[in-house]
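User: Quick sanity check before I run a bigger batch. Here is a single chain. Can you write out its predicted 3D structure?
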Amino acid sequence: MRLSPDTVAAIKSAAAEAFGDDAVVRLFGSRTDDLARGGDIDLHVEAAPDHADLDHEVHFRALLWKALDEEQLDVVVAPRGRIDRWIDRAAHREGIVL
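Assistant: Done. Predicted structure follows.
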């Protein structure tokens, strides 16, 4: 996984604040490959249905931008218990829980 411990801590903290302590954040995509270079940070957040909306996602992104100053950030939010989309299945299959 190509994220520093400080970056992981910032992501987990932002997720807890924006989505609640029970949110599950997975890193997926190219940053999970230790041999690759570059790439954006792809995050999949699974949250309670009442927190998995656009307002909470915007808050999460704002917190991350302040903490990381990272422009190449992709976030997918999924309400817990909903039928998985293809991106949710990919994140579950290939992702690393932070």
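The mean pLDDT is 93.

User: Great, the batch can go ahead then.
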